[in-house]
Amino acid sequence: MASAPNLRVSGVLAKGAFRITGRILLALAFVAATTFVFSRLIPVNSTTVGFLYLVVVLAIATAGGLVESTIASVAAMLCFNFFFFPPVGTFTIADPRNWVALFAFLATSLTASQLSARAKRRTNEAVERQHELERLYALSRALLLTDPTRPIANQIVQNIARAFEFSAVALYDRANNEIYRAADGDVSAIEAKLKEAALRSSSFRDESSGFIVTPVRLGGQPIGSLAIRTVSLSDAALQSLLNLVAIGLERALAQETVNRAEVARRSEELKSTLLDAVAHEFKTPLTSLKAVTTELLSDPVYELPQHQRELVSIADEGADRLSKLVTEAIQLARIEGGGFRLNRGMHLPSALVSAALRQMKSFLEGRQIKVSVPMDLPPVWVDAELIQMVITHLLDNALKYSPAGNPILIDARSDDARVSICVTDQGPGIAEVEQPRIFEKFYRGKVEPHLKGSGMGLSIAREIVRAHGEEISVTSRVGEGSRFCFSMPIAQGSGSE
Amino acid sequence: MSTGRILVIDDDPQIRRTMRATLTTRGYEVNDGRTGEEGIEKLRSGPYDLVLLDLNMPGIGGIETCRMIRSVSEVAIIVLTVSNTEKDKVEALDAGADDYITKPFSTPELLARIRATLRRLPQPPDQAELSKLASHGVEIDLASREITVRGRTSHLTAKEFDLLSYLLARPNKTIAHRELLQAIWGPDYGDELEYLRVFMNRLRKKIEPNPSKPQFLLTDAWAGYRFQIPKKASDTRS
Hints:
By secondary structure, chain A is of the alpha+beta class. Chain A has four domains: 3-130, no CATH class; 136-260, 2-Layer Sandwich (Beta-Lactamase), CATH 3.30.450; 262-335; 343-496, Histidine kinase-like ATPase, C-terminal domain (Heat Shock Protein 90). In chain A, 58% of the residues lie in helices and 14% in strands. Chain A contains twelve helices and twelve strands. In chain A, the strands form three sheets. Chain A has a five-stranded antiparallel sheet, sandwiched between helices. Chain A is rod-shaped, with a radius of gyration of 46 Å. Chain B is of the alpha/beta class. Chain B has two domains: 4-118, Response regulator (Rossmann fold); 127-234, Arc Repressor Mutant, subunit A (Orthogonal Bundle), CATH 1.10.10.10. Chain B has ten helices and eleven strands. Chain B has a five-stranded parallel sheet with strand order 2-1-3-4-5, with helices on both faces. A three-stranded antiparallel sheet of chain B has the order 6-7-8. The longest helix of chain B has 15 residues, at 193-207.
């Protein structure tokens, strides 16, 4: 497999050698023709012949390269000597002045060959640079116009192969560990080299296959590598090409990130719409149910007989419970989806607690709640609605798991960076083995399995606190009660306001 | 005797039935509409004291209905909705609602909200007190609920008017949030800071020359609000 490129390379070399031999023969033919014309057909003096040889050598140097013009110079010098300097027909020279003339001729024609060849080389280089520039320009244009719906790395390779007419191109993208190829697609021989180049950030030249393997860097970091098989490409052009590839890959990455974010946003939107619809569909019938039961229970004119009152109360509590379950299920789904954004602001801990207490007012009747939240605690940087939700869930939990006669304590304290709010009950407490599990979804304490509840409240509370980058914890002793604490960050710069 | 005329706008027939039954026994005169469009049409044909408005309805929807009612009428509006988020509350209040109740609600709670919304200031500001303000370029017409500030006249809703006159009666003094809420809405209120924020914005739009840089209705962070009589007008002597 590897021999195929080998043959091709030696083929190219053979073709080059053949061409230069032809050109040398042609140059010699010109010198011979000049010699023949001016020694046999149009006799002129030796000075004129010298100039005519010079003209021929210059013409050869301009049209050809350094090799043929140098050979032509030497051949012309020998012919000049042999055919024109007396004694004619020999390489000996009688007049020493003619030696000077002969060497002056040789020096002039060699120098002229050199100069002409150099000028030609410059021109060729300039033309080549121009070609490279045109190709780089074509490539950059093509890269800008890549179709974002198709893999961009693949399009980059295709475009490189097309713009530079390389016989083979392969691009290794480190981001997804994939190799993209174009033109002569067989790059299995240098796959390992590609990965190595990207890993070590070093270049290789694979002589046997004719591949140049170079890392593609962006901001000093190798993000992939490029292998191209080419006869000639200037370092500057290669560098520019690599830069273009780096930019193209980076763009592909950015594009992908944007796409992914867009998909996530859409699915989040859909989920949110669905949840709203579900909430509405469940709560609308609950609303009339609840309005009826509460109306029956509170109607001042027709008071219900005891038995009916009890039955309506059961329906009323059922409606409450169902409503709470729907609310919690939606809260949990929304919070777990991660799609909710914290709407942080500066809030006083005491205000958060009193707002939560107000929300819970109807459940707190007949219970003893001790609130010890100093007014002078610094404001915290939180989403007030969500933190109120945490407090209500903790309160709800305390109410559920402690006897009606036992007080519930809400207290708060602060250190340098955060304020902690704690809700303490005097319930049965939580066994140590159970403590790590109580924040899990749908987990309910073993002590009072008959208690109603969804098992979602503490889980919601934990998710909210975590979303703030803070912690919630429980300390509890069986027989004494439980204490739930969570922390909130103190608002920056609150001291100055 | 009717204690008030209430229009219930809700697409759910069960809720309309329940509301009608409950409110009628409390002495309210009740009419209803199935959509925002129908509700607005009913409002045109007769005077109402209060609208109970569902937010989630087909057609133009609750928020837009609220906005449209508010643009032509000062009738009291209580919004009924399943969402309890502050964003939705503020949106409804911004659209011109006076109060907000979350479904499902209990009848006593709804009745309390209706009473609070229809409730007027126990003591409207003293006429003598108000006439003092006239010299500072603030004129108030108690009967028509119109206020003229430096030549610009605005018509206020009942709650806006009560809130403004409560502050006006105590010029240059910071009134705490809780005090304002309990005075204007009733004793059950006290933590609905978003109500005050929205109503203050509504008032500022009506009376301030530049609502984003208020010179009369000032916010005292963490504490409350205050009606400031600008120094220039009062410092005629000193």
